[in-house]
Design brief:
Four copies of one chain form a homotetramer. Chain A contains nine helices and no strands. By secondary structure, chain A is an all-alpha fold. The longest helix of chain A is centred in the middle third of the chain and has 29 residues. Chain A is globular and about 60 Å long. The two termini of chain A are 29 Å apart. Chains A and B meet through α1, α3, α4 and α5 of A and α1 and α2 of B.
């Protein structure tokens, strides 16, 4: 079985998640510019989640591009990832509507942590189906980003109850780390497809 | 006519159904962790429906993968299945928001039962278009899961009015039975594509 | 330019339209079976619109399958059709929530009439791009269904103010006429692809 | 990496944005035709945004059709464009529900301006990946539309506070300028694929 329909379904779910988040941005009642001020934290949390989901889509895209076979375990690991990502609109909304209050900010981190673990499990499932000699295995290598991110989330969650902005800053930091698509996978792909070596 | 666009449309509808269900998880008003407690049954019913829709997507995927021709009857049997699945967000929401009260729990079972029957009808339509000698016919074989599931739902529905948790337990049991993608179809596909026999 | 992306986009929009309609089925507040009774007209109008959108998807599918080239006129004629179909959840909701009151029932007919005209314009645009000798031109032939449907809608709209059920009955009648995918196109396609004659 | 999945994801997001806008058209409470009158500005702003998103889809379609390679910069420039487009349902809703009041009308222009800039950046990213000798570079040429549109939006935004209808008129004017898909790209594509020269 190829990866086409898995990608198509994941794209569909990710596209919908990323788009229904904007429904949390409720149309304000006033007609003056001031009416937008209370929406500021909602907008900010929307931007953060949009970027995070964009990163997942981007990396998911690269990872499945390097995948040849789809097994039952991969299908379910993928659905497991989509499950946690589908909760992002909810946790984003709770955090945004409460001006980054401690508990909502911590829960947002829990959601991101569980999604990161689910992504790691999906990568495991793909690697074990492809074999340790595979293109993806070589490309992923030490995977320091994939190990650092959950660690940073795990630190951020309790810190949300001390200072919310520390947790928020750590979420932004993880996003910045990932913002660039993984050059190792791209390099490995280029090597296979293009060059003599 | 190929199965491509049928798969794409079904994927789109399933992706949307699975994602808009999360809109039932309304952002709570408080900012404390306690504010999440009343959402527990809504979350639980979301998980159950997410898994059920994932199973349908998975099996639908396998079944259409073994389908070569699409007839008008298949198109409409597929839309009929999507119709009952499109009601899952509604019945899930009613059950979750009422802490698994008897009538909503029974209605959820009715919905699952009708979807199971629709799936069986779709399988019939595909089998009759492919012929009894087809790959899918061999793969489906006795189809004990497809026969057991509606029977368990039919038992669960009246029992929801006796003890809700018995009905809920039966719904979970059916999900567990299906959780693994059908090995018979996979085996038959492997046989055709890969091996000498 | 091929028809692939046009089909994919149309599939996406149709899948979303068909699915967000179910959001009009608001989760009732009571927990007894009676709580569902007021939802009956909403459910009925949902079924009617689901079938109508299924018919559009089905026929759109067949028509584009017989299309080789996509022009700018076809792209915009297609968006025009999607525009009127995108209003179906709104007109369905107004009709369903008001138990098929005269004005909402008439507006529903206006929506269906404008969608039928848009479909006819799209067919015109495709035919003029393919040429009158084309496969589709032969397949469409006299197109009695495409001419009868708008006429029946035009009759139904004023009758909604006399007796609502006459208008509703005519909407159901048009759906029944279209329910079967157009055998002429299928026959012409089969002729081209498969047989010696 | 090909453009397929980028197109599929963009199509998904655009299809959802275009469709959830209709959720702003809330079902009115009355059953008389008069109940629709207050919806007039909401409907009008929906039409304007539907056409604008249709234009973006159309041009995006043509631009990616002339794209051979997808880089990380293109992926993110594309997500950046989708981000601003995802806010269109919000700004459309605010403008429509307030009968084109000055501030909402200006904000709508800001949204369109930022989307136009994002589109220009995406075109830059694609051109720099394809090289100045590329098909797209030749096709885009002087790109007077792409330069005029942001200028007109920038003029319209302050004018919304003087006379709302001037801003609205300028938005419609930009839409009319773009309504026709870019003949230069189509001509260049035809030249490459079809003709001897």
């Amino acid at each position: 079985m190829g990866t086409n329909r898995l990608e198509a379904f994941s794209d569909g779910v990710l596209a919908i998640i990323i788009t229904i988040m904007v429904l949390e941005l409720k149309v304000p009642h006033g007609t003056a510019i001031d009416a937008l001020v209370p929406l500021w934290p909602v907008f900010l949390s929307y931007v953060l989640s949009f970027v995070n989901l964009g990163i997942y889509w981007n990396n998911h895209h690269h990872m499945l591009h390097a995948t040849q076979r789809v097994s039952g375990a991969i299908l379910w690991a993928n659905l497991h990832l989509l499950f946690w990502l589908s909760l992002v609109p909810f946790t984003t909304g709770w955090m945004g509507e409460n001006q980054f209050a401690p508990a909502p900010t911590a829960l947002y981190g829990v959601n991101l942590l569980l999604a990161a673990i689910a992504y790691w499990l999906l990568q495991r499932a793909i690697l074990s189906a492809q074999g340790s000699e595979s293109l993806l295995a070589a490309a992923v290598g030490s995977d320091w980003k994939g190990k650092l991110s959950p660690a940073l989330y795990a630190i951020a969650i309790p810190l949300a109850f001390v200072r919310e902005w520390i947790a928020g800053g750590l979420y932004v930091l993880v996003a910045l780390i990932w913002l660039v698509p993984d050059p190792r996978i791209e390099r490995a792909l280029v090597k296979r497809e293009g060059g003599p070596r």
